[in-house]
Amino acid sequence: MITARAAATFEPVGRSVATARAFVRDTLQGWGCADIVDDAVVLTSELVTNAVVHAGTAADVLCLRDDGGVRISVADRYPEREIPLQNAGQVLVHPDREGGRGLLLCGALASRWGVEYTAAQKHVWFQLELPERPAGTRSAGPALPVDALPVTDARVRVAVIQIDRGGCISFWNEDAQNLFAYDPEQVIGKPLTDFAAWPHTPGTGTGIAEALQLSRWEGSYGIRGADGRVVPVYASHLRVRDADGEASTVCLLVRDHERAILQSPQRTPAPDAASQPEGRPSDPFEVFIGSPAPDDLDGLLQRTVERARDMLDGDAAYLLLATDDETELEVRASTGLPSARQRFARVPVEAGSGRYGSARMPAVHEDLTAVPGAVPLLSGTGMRSVVTVPLKVEGRLTGSLGVAAEGPARYTNEEALRLQFAADRIALAVERARLTELEKLRRGSLSFLVEASDLLAGTLDRDQTLALMAQMTVPTLATWCAVYTVADQTSEPELSYVLHEDEDRIDGLKTLLMKVDPPEPVPTPGARVWTAPSDAAQDAALRTSMRSLGLGNSARPSSGPGATLATAAAVGGETVVLPLVARNRVIGMLTLGKPTEEHFRQEILELAEDLSRRAALALDNSRLYSERTAISQSLQRSLLPPELPDIAGVEVEVIYRAAGEGNEVGGDFYDLFPIRDGAYGFAIGDVCGTGPEAAAVTGLARHALRLLAREGFGGPAVLERLNAAILDEGARSRFLTLLYGELWPQDDGSAVLKVVCAGHPLPLRLRQDGTVEPAAEPQPLLGVMDDLELYEQTVTLDPGDVLLCVTDGVTERREGTRMLGDDGLTDVLTTCTGLTAGAVAARVLRAVERFAAEPASDDMAILAMRVPEFQAG
After folding, report:
1. Does the keyword Hydrolase apply (predicted)?
2. Nearest-angstrom CA–CA distance, 347 and 59
3. Range 459-548+561-630 has CATH code 3.40.1280.10
């Protein structure tokens, strides 16, 4: 039975793909289906692309929800298109090919999919099943000795917080007040998101907004206390409704180390006591690990290390997971060690110095001081003895589990066997949870890259591209980001953009990076570690601390110790550099960093590498576009007169508007120049087409007009010679419409003009009484015929008269099937009686702009000349 429905139609334009993705994402999140959002967005993106880009039709997207899942249908108006069939004798669509990938993705990601045809449409639909969320079960654990019970504080405090349907706090009990130091009146009515420090990893886990909507949720996060510190908590959420049907969420929270109070017990029944071997005591590891949730890898790993430590009475424990090629181990959980510093740190497996030699077999180290470096993770921690065992699945190394103690000779082979037995029981569950996490991460990464590519492709502005690169990585991939650009192979890298998730840290971070030599622009793909920022920050913090204690130079530091220490903490973790390579050239570096002693996980670095490749191409495209635009604008300016001469007794105003993005060169042009004493030449023209060929004709026309006019040739002779010069260009020649004239101001306040109109819109004369008439007759355009017989016409402008000259970008202004035309321009000019030349030109431009809602598609030039009614002295 269908329980929810949403539909939308998208136009056949490229931007509709992003709009459709946003529609599906918002719809599914509103339905509480966050678990399948990433898959749905990716599939919708491909299917809508097929419709609006490849088929060139509108796309109808329909979302339906039923009790089992969500069905999404994308329909286009092109039912004749073939679909790829996976027959034995047919080659599947290549992943790099533009069309057909959407259907293959449906087969890979959807639980069901299909194609339906009608006479006018083709429907492609896919079904995504919603994962089951068990609401929890009742169970009881066995009796345990006191020393095997979990440890808590003497006074256990359970914070009870109730959240209304809007996500705001409606109840705050006394224990919550004690744990987080907020009085109820300080928090009630505010969103829980203002206080929760939620773990953020793309593609994995559940957001806090989604968690509050689930019927039951359990896990770890942090609450920012009144002192600004984050208190790690373990929480259990339960969605309830009151007698009026109003829904809310009750949250029970305890300190993270007291999680056993709220943590759900094992999901499978404990083994019956009769089935236990006689005389064998209950193993705390077996009791508390049980059958963990398959999608909670971090919780499973953390419980594993805690139970392993308790089982062997150790001071610390840790668990590392192997990479796919088994060459490195990555720290994923620890207890009794500085876990924040070590999380996601990587050590090699049996390779070179710092080798982790005991990874593939159980090992006992009685005293680490005798074999320094045997277990790199424990260096500098004070641990002396350690037992390590491998986690293996089908003979393949998947991880390593270790328990350490501060005293020497604490462990023997017996403890190694016990720990190996526990590791063998948990290895398969860990591997399954890890693969589930990787699959979620990869699907989330695919969705992230799809949207990132769309954003990067949506701009050709260099500064905006740099900002997008940083904003997409912070905080999703890193805590801070810096983008360096390289102008050319001989230039030094330049720091172009800096971003930190805490805006207060940006200035200090930028100042620090400006003092550090930039990373070397190496084209080698992949992320490489860069220690310079961390070293410089620690050095600056040390010097500042010594000065504040009076141990160093007495000069006052430029910033307080707090600011310097905060900057050092912000960049104190792992920093990596990824090259931005486009068209076989390094054009910059993307630098990502973590706060104090944190590390990147390998999957995040792989995602960042994919992003850097897309960002590099977008950045290089913006560079090429900026260079092209600058060249076009520079050339366009060179084809127009730098300034207009002052003509005594005549007002002159010119307005020029270049149409099109980037201001393509070579369209309309104008000129006004002195010929000799008392005589001036003016011209306004339009070359057929745009681009370099049109620009060549434009430059030829403007300079030839000046040269020939100053040699004493009359208007017809000037244009006839120009016509011959254009035809001499051969295949590069272009048609040219041109209005050319000569102007002589008279002593009586009038002005005499001699004009030749060669295929150009006729000049219009506005008299004082408001009448408008053409001031010339049409003659053949230039660049077509060899033999032209042109003639000039004489026009006298009386005081108060206006001569208006325009290009066809004015008269051919369109709105649908309507066009402004000569009659429309005449109507506008009749309203300009008594206006100055500048006001006339401005009114004409305003009328043209208001005639249609869309931007102008053609260049426009407006030349207005007016003889004032009253002349000075």
Report:
1. yes
2. 50
3. no
